[in-house]
Amino acid sequence: MYKLNSGFRWTCTTPIETEVGTFTCDLKEQNSHIQELEEQRLNQGIQINYQSEIASHLILTKAANEKQLEYLLSNLLKYGVLSASSIVLFGGILYLINHGFEPAKYQVFIGTPSQFRSPIGIVNAVLAGSRQGIIQLGLLLLIAIPILRVIISCLTFLLQRNFIYVIITLLVFTSLMYSLVGAYY
Predict the structure, then answer these.
(1) Residue 79 CB: number of other CB atoms within 10 A?
(2) What is the DSSP letter of 24?
(3) How far is Cα of residue 46 from the mean position of the Cα atoms in its chain?
(4) Cβ neighbourhood burial of 126 (10 Å; 0-12, 13-18, 19+)
(5) Rounded to an integer, what distance in angstroms lies between the CA atom of residue 18 and that of residue 20?
(6) For residue 104, how many C-alpha atoms fall within 13 Å in the half-sphere facing its CB?
(7) In 3-state terms, what secondary structure has residue 130?
(8) What does 30-62 look like in DSSP terms, one character per residue?
(9) How many Cα neighbours within 13 Å face the side chain of 149?
(10) Distance (Å, rounded) from C-alpha 138 to C-alpha 88?
């Protein structure tokens, strides 16, 4: 029976009974059982170690593929952003050398020329020597790098037969393409 005392704690009111028992065992039988248990443990330990080595090898192989993909994608992003921003900086410097002292005309809004509204027009403008075309090319590369990253991820997951990730990357790719193409229509 439990009772609530004045300190708001439960106390037991029934006496606790304890029993002590003894048993005897023959020393020869005890040693033989211990030896049998040790042999079983060693046999199971060898099997467990062999299985854990196989599992760790598979985990390391999978981790190597993942590290290779991470290395590829990180270098793509790193060097892609670096090259795109270098192209934008180069085009910006060339533009400021020729047009840096012209006053800005904010009274009338002048939109982007039609030659800079498509990737083919941008490449043609760069080949014609347009400084704005060089800046636009850098920005176009900056937009294209994440799209290329998604394509490489999709192909890698397809080769690894991770179809769930393939579906997810295809959904990401579809949303990227919709956001780019949807602006034209």
Answers:
(1) 11
(2) -
(3) 37
(4) buried
(5) 7
(6) 3
(7) coil
(8) HHHHHHHHHHHHHHHHHHHHHHHHHHHHHHHHH
(9) 20
(10) 5
What length does the chain have?
A: 185
Which residue bears the tokens 């005309």?
Answer: 105
pLDDT in tens, the chain (185 residues): 555 566 566 666 666 665 666 655 555 555 566 777 777 766 665 555 556 665 555 555 556 777 888 888 889 999 999 999 999 999 999 999 988 788 878 888 888 788 888 888 888 989 998 889 999 999 999 999 999 999 998 998 898 888 899 999 999 999 988 988 876 66
Q: Do residues 170 and 129 make contact, with C-beta atoms less than 8 angstroms apart?
A: no
SS3 percent helix, strand, coil of the chain, rounded to 5, is 70, 5, 25
> Cβ(178)–Cβ(160) under 8 Å?
no
